[in-house]
Design goal:
With about 180 residues, the protein is an alpha+beta fold. About 50% of the residues lie in helices and about 25% in strands. It has 2 domains: about 70 residues, Winged helix-like DNA-binding domain superfamily/Winged helix DNA-binding domain (Arc Repressor Mutant, subunit A, Orthogonal Bundle); about 90 residues, 2-Layer Sandwich (Beta Polymerase, domain 2).
Length: about 180
């Protein structure tokens, strides 16, 4: 879907990297290693996105660190398109409201780090019907053409995990609106 609108594979990778998880930040050389592409192609796209104010940068030593500009007027729209690309909208909309006492859904794994990956890693927090979840996950996989791996935690279990997790590679993609 997104490939039809944006023909530059490098630009797509950068949009996924920065707009799916707005906490992602990266240097040119790190992106070169991660994407397996030439630094010139990546630099060209970074410059275009920065010139359009979609990315912000700051110099640290002799390196330039890039991060998404959350204040850009198109930020929410691009973020939504990226989520749709991964099928997150289908999963969350079809699953979250029917599972019982679901409190939150987090994206984790490679996709949360901004890499295009064939497996979606999700964490469901709450007291939910696991059998029903499995049934819904199977249906969602057929719709989005991706494998979904998931974990289910109670609120107390997940708070312990977050407290002990230094990296905190979780992206909140849905919550029930109640302060946690």
């Amino acid at each position: 879907m997104i490939n039809a609108l944006i023909t530059s594979k490098t630009r797509i990778k950068l949009l996924l990297k920065f707009f799916l998880n707005p906490d992602n930040a990266a240097y040119l050389r790190g992106l070169e290693t991660e994407f397996g592409e030439s630094s010139n192609a990546i630099r060209l796209e970074l410059n275009r996105l920065e010139k359009a104010n979609m990315l912000e940068s700051k110099v640290e030593g002799n390196r330039k660190l890039y991060k998404v500009n959350r204040q850009h007027p198109l930020y929410n729209d691009i973020n939504s398109i990226v989520r749709k690309y991964f099928g997150l909208d289908v999963i969350v909309d079809s699953i979250a409201k029917r599972l019982g006492n679901l409190r939150a859904v987090y994206l984790t794994g490679e996709i949360a780090r901004g890499s295009d990956f064939s497996i979606l890693d999700l964490i469901f927090v709450g007291d939910i019907d696991k059998k029903y979840l499995l049934n819904l996950i199977e249906k969602a996989e057929a719709l989005i053409k991706r494998k979904v791996r998931y974990l289910v935690y109670t609120e107390a279990e997940f708070k312990k995990i977050l407290a002990g997790d230094v990296k905190n590679g979780y992206v909140l993609i849905w919550n029930d609106g109640v302060e946690q």
